[in-house]
C-alpha cells in the first residue's frame, strides 16, 4: 500500500488517502506501507504531521520510502529532522513531494 496523508489536497492515483493523523497511524499499524507522503498542516486544532512522524519513530512504523509534501517549510524541516534521526537502514527519506515520474509509474501500475 502507498499512503498519502493530507486534509485538503487530492490524493494521487496509486495511493490510499488518510485525511488526518489518526487515520494515517491506523493504516501504518495495520498494513505494510511502501510509500508514505506526509503533509504537516492538517487543519485547525488537529494533530500535525510532526505528531505522525513522532509516532512513526516511537512505534517503529517506518515504510520503505517517506516523502514530505507539505508547503510549510518549517513543518517539513521538523518532520525531516524527527524522522532522519531514527531512520532504519534501507528506509529512504525525501524532503520533497513524490516526483512526477514516480507518480506516473504508480498510476500506470494501478491501471493494469
UniProtKB/TrEMBL annotation:
Domain Cyclic-phosphate processing Receiver: start-end pairs: 1-84
Highest taxon of source: Bacteria
The protein's name in its UniProt record: Cyclic-phosphate processing receiver domain-containing protein
Naturally occurring in which organism (per UniProt): Paenibacillus enshidis
Higher taxonomy: Bacteria, Bacillati, Bacillota, Bacilli, Bacillales
Amino acid at each position: 500500500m502507498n499512503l498519502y496523508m493530507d486534509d485538503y489536497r487530492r490524493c494521487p492515483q496509486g495511493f490510499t488517502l488518510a485525511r488526518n493523523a489518526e487515520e494515517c497511524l491506523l493504516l501504518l499499524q495495520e498494513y505494510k506501507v511502501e510509500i508514505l507522503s506526509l503533509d504537516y498542516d492538517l487543519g485547525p486544532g488537529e494533530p500535525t504531521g510532526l505528531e505522525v512522524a513522532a509516532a512513526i519513530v516511537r512505534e517503529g512504523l517506518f515504510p520503505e520510502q517517506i516523502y514530505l509534501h507539505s508547503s510549510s517549510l518549517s513543518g517539513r524541516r521538523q518532520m525531516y529532522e524527527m524522522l532522519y534521526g531514527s531512520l532504519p537502514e534501507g528506509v529512504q527519506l525525501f524532503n520533497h513531494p513524490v516526483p512526477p515520474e514516480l507518480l506516473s509509474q504508480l498510476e500506470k501500475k494501478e491501471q493494469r
